[in-house]
Amino acid sequence: MTRSFWKSAAPNTNFPKLNENISAEIAIIGGGITGITTAYLLAKSGKKVVLLEAGTISGGTTGDSTGNLYAMVDKRLHHIQSKWNEDTASRVAQSRGQAVNLVEELVNKYQINCSFKRVPWYLFSETEKKDETIEKEIKAAAHYRLPVEEVHDLPIPVKVSMAIKVEGQAQFNPAAFVRGLAEKIDSANCRIFENSEVHHIEKEEDLVLSTDSAKVTAKKVILATHTPKGIYGLQTALYPYREYAIAAKLNSGDFPDGIYWDTEADFHTSMRTYSKGEDNYVLVLGGHHKVGQEDDYSCFFKKLEQNARKHFDVASIDYEWSAQHYKPADGLPYIGESSDDNIYIATGFSTDGLTYGVLSAMILNDQLNNRENEWSDLYKASRFTPVKSAKNFIKENLNVAKQYIKDLPGKAEAGSFDEIAADQGKVVEVENEKWAVFKDEKGQVHCQSAVCTHMDCIVDWNDAEKSWDCPCHGSRFKATGEVIEGPAFLPLAPKDPAAREKE
Ligand code: FES
């Protein structure tokens, strides 16, 4: 199984499980950076809040992220400028810069031990082919008054053609920050529960959130779940991707600070360094692909390792993990009230989620306190942008439509359980149904329906993470069917392997 460097280097939390029916003004689902920062700000403003986390605080995408905070964006500021306009690109950079400042303020205020530091951010081209991208980004960043510089050498041992350097960005351990902040939340106004997975939201006079053991009744609900839970039209404008990360322990060599992004289109790596005790690590991230649509998921770790060894004196690869992100159709996140009254969302962060998560908290805090927020309109969740969204919308939704073909007869990966190796899974056809069958290391089979409980796509086995991943909207399930993440509320339906053996 994969494991995240950040989670292993962060203190554990010990919040209780929800065991009694309670009520609150605002219920937040999700204990990542978005949920916890929002809970902190709302509780501080005097709102009565309940936060429900399905697993442990920062145990999801936040703890699997890069630990980088920056005003720039994965999509590039000059692309935002050409798709939208100069004012939009400028406001994106400004708003993201303010979110990074808030993290720094909280770290200092509460002395959160999360290795926060200001570092430069670089985007580089290895060949002249990509210099034009760098030139455009330098121009855009300078125009928006970011502290930018053109450079032709990096402090890391990677030969570059051209690079942009932006001073004053930041790095931290995101799991340590979020867990540290969770401990500082005003407990008189905010109750936090772990291991309290919400499997249903009912609209009565108020909103009622059900977990296995109890219910929360709230006037308003914030889905800080990375993508909204349940079925929303917005899911046609959110496209799920995964990316991989390794932490390589170094034998020797320079160990400079900084965020390093490579423009090479085929793999798009990003690098950074981090010290843990006496050990120096370089973290290499990349290998972006659509969720649930690969044949070989493990190859991404191998490619990252090759990349690390190409540039650094690597002693060992100590951690491997991956994370999901959701690309928005028109290039900007969706933050604010959803199409459902009193349900708020924060999603579509692409790979820039730590900064956008904090920015979401700032916006949602103002909205729920009926205060003006200068960024609300920019990221409005209910915006309609057909022209800016059209290209991605058509491409991605045709891709989703294609995934439903996998439910046709004869499209299974195996005809019998014998074709499945130990510790692996395959989709098997059983009496015209698709089953997701996992064979554990002892040879015992675990069978569940392969039909995703969100909107009926057929899930795909992820050999690197031992999970069932849905290619349509990114729901992911454990090998034994329980929900890991994504819009699905319910686990894959269990199936009885004895029924198959009787055939
Ligand atoms: Fe939507 Fe699976 S996530 S159908």
From TrEMBL:
Pfam family membership, one: DAO
Rieske domain mapped to chain residues: 412-494
A molecular function GO annotation: metal ion binding
InterPro entries, per database record: FAD-dep_OxRdtase, FAD/NAD-bd_sf, Rieske_2Fe-2S, Rieske_2Fe-2S_sf, Rieske_Fe-S_prot_C, YhfW_C
Gene3D superfamilies, A to Z: D-Amino Acid Oxidase, subunit A, domain 2, FAD/NAD(P)-binding domain, Rieske [2Fe-2S] iron-sulphur domain
GO cellular component: cytoplasm; membrane
Protein name (database record): FAD-dependent oxidoreductase
